[in-house]
C-alpha cells in the first residue's frame, strides 16, 4: 500500500547489491528497483571521473538537465545494466592483472590465491535429476597445491544416483564484489560453467579408480572423482581437481551455459630450425592425494626426434628405465583421502596427477589435474638395482597420454619411479605451432 514515490525515495539510499536483492522480492519491487534515476546516480558517483562528480555536485542545474536527457531516452533498467557491465569489466581487469605475473618454476600464475581472494571466487556443483529438478551443493573443502586446487563436496541429503542425469561444475563470484565485505551467499552472484558431466550409467560408462571398505571411486574427464557408497547406490562425495592453468579464466569469464574458450596460441615462426616444435620442452609433475604430496619433480630439455613420431603421437621420454640418475622415490603410501560428515577413508593405489608441460618459450602447452590409479604389471623388473614388482599408472585424454612405471622395493617399503613417458597428440602440436608433423 506504500506509494511508489516513497518506495523510490527509500530505494535511493540503498547500495547496488541491496538494490539488486530488493528487486527479487516481487514484480512491483523489481520494476521500481530498475529505476534509471537511482542507477544513474550510482553510475555517476562510482564510475565517472572525479572532476565530473565535482561538477555535478557544484552545478546542480546541469545535473538535472543531464539526468533528464539520460533518463527519458533510455528504457527502464538501462543504467542498471550499464552499471553492472562497467563494474564487472573493471573487476575482471583487476583480477586478470594479478595473474599476469608468472612463476618461472612452473610457468603458471604465481598469485592465484590472491586473485581468488580478491574475486571472492568459490565453486559449486549442481546435480540435475531426470525430472529437471536441480540440487545445488555448496560449502566445499579446498586443498591448494603448487599447480592445482582440489575441491571436495559431501553431504547427507543428496538425491539417489539412479535419478540423476547430469552434474555441472561452476565457478561462482559475487556480481558486484566489495573488498570491504565478505561475499554474501544470498546476494547476486555470477556463474561460470567449467564442466558438465553425464551421470547416467555412471558405474558402466566411467573409469573405476579404486575402492576401500566403504566407497568405490569413479573418474570422469576432466578431473572429476565421484565416490559411491558400496552399501547403497548413492553418492558419498564428489572431488574435483582444477589445474591452475586458465583456472581463473574458466571460473570467471565463462557464462552459466557456455564454457570459457581460451584464445588460440600465436606461434613464433622459425624458418631456421628444422626441428622447431620438437625440443626444449619443460615438465613439472606433482603426484598427491588431496592432503599430502607423494612426488614433485621438474624436468627440462625434453625433446622428440622425428623418427619418434608415430601413430599420431610425439614421444617425449622424461624418465628412462636405464637411466637411474632420474629415478625418483615416492614419499609415503599412495592413496586418495576422503571424508564425509560421519566417515573418513583412504583409497589406496590411486592419486591425483598434476602435469604442466611448457613449450620452448615457457608457455603452458599441455596441462591437466586428474585422478589416476595404479595397477600391478605382468612384467617383472629387469634391473639389478630394483628386483621388485612393477606397477603402471596411465592417463589419456584428447591431447595426449602419460605412462608411468613404478617399482616396489620391499626392503625400504617404497615405490621408485623408473619410467615416465609422454605421448603428445600431433593434432595438438600442429594446431599449437601451425606445423604439420
UniProtKB/TrEMBL annotation:
GO terms for cellular component: SCF ubiquitin ligase complex. CDD domains: F-box_FBXO15. InterPro entries: F-box-like_dom_sf, F-box_dom. Residues 1-42 form the F-box domain. This is FBX15 protein. The lineage of its organism: Eukaryota, Metazoa, Chordata, Craniata, Vertebrata. The gene is Fbxo15.
Amino acid at each position: 500500500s506504500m506509494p511508489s514515490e516513497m518506495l523510490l525515495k527509500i530505494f535511493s539510499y540503498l547500495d547496488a547489491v541491496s538494490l539488486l536483492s530488493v528487486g527479487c522480492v516481487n514484480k512491483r519491487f523489481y520494476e521500481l528497483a530498475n529505476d534509471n534515476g537511482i542507477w544513474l546516480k550510482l553510475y555517476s558517483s562510482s564510475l565517472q571521473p572525479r572532476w565530473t562528480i565535482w561538477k555535478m555536485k557544484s552545478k546542480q542545474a546541469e545535473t538535472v538537465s543531464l539526468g533528464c536527457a539520460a533518463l527519458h531516452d533510455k528504457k527502464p533498467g538501462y543504467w542498471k545494466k550499464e552499471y553492472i557491465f562497467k563494474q564487472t569489466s573493471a573487476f575482471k581487469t583487476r583480477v586478470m592483472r594479478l595473474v599476469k605475473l608468472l612463476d618461472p618454476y612452473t610457468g603458471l600464475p604465481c598469485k592465484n590465491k590472491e586473485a581468488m581472494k580478491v574475486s571472492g571466487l568459490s565453486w559449486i556443483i549442481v546435480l540435475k535429476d531426470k525430472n529437471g529438478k536441480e540440487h545445488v551443493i555448496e560449502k566445499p573443502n579446498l586443498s591448494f597445491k603448487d599447480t592445482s586446487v582440489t575441491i571436495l563436496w559431501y553431504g547427507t541429503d543428496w538425491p539417489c544416483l539412479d535419478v540423476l542425469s547430469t552434474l555441472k561444475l561452476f565457478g561462482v563470484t559475487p556480481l558486484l564484489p566489495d573488498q570491504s565485505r565478505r561475499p554474501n551467499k544470498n546476494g547476486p552472484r555470477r556463474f561460470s560453467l567449467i564442466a558438465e558431466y553425464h551421470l547416467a550409467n555412471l558405474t558402466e560408462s566411467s573409469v573405476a579408480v579404486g575402492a576401500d571398505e566403504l566407497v568405490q571411486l569413479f573418474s570422469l574427464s576432466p578431473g572429476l572423482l565421484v565416490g559411491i557408497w558400496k552399501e547403497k547406490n548413492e553418492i558419498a562425495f564428489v572431488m574435483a581437481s582444477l589445474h591452475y592453468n586458465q583456472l581463473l579464466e574458466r571460473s570467471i569469464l565463462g557464462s552459466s551455459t557456455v564454457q570459457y574458450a581460451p584464445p588460440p596460441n600465436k606461434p613464433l615462426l622459425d624458418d631456421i630450425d628444422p626441428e622447431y616444435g620438437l625440443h626444449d620442452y619443460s615438465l613439472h609433475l606433482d603426484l598427491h592425494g588431496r592432503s599430502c604430496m607423494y612426488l614433485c619433480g621438474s624436468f627440462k630439455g625434453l625433446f622428440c626426434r622425428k623418427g619418434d613420431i608415430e601413430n599420431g603421437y610425439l614421444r617425449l621420454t622424461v624418465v628412462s628405465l636405464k637411466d637411474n640418475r632420474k629415478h625418483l622415490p615416492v614419499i609415503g603410501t599412495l592413496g586418495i583421502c576422503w571424508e564425509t560428515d560421519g566417515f573418513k577413508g583412504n583409497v589406496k593405489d590411486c592419486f591425483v596427477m598434476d602435469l604442466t608441460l611448457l613449450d620452448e618459450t615457457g608457455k603452458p602447452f599441455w596441462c591437466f589435474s586428474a585422478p589416476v590409479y595404479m595397477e600391478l604389471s605382468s612384467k617383472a623388473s629387469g634391473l639389478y638395482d630394483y628386483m621388485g614388482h612393477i606397477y603402471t599408472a596411465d592417463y589419456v585424454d584428447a591431447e595426449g597420454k602419460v605412462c608411468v612405471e613404478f617399482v616396489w622395493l620391499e626392503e625400504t617399503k617404497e615405490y621408485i619411479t623408473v619410467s615416465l613417458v609422454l605421448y603428445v597428440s600431433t593434432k595438438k602440436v600442429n594446431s599449437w605451432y601451425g606445423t604439420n608433423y
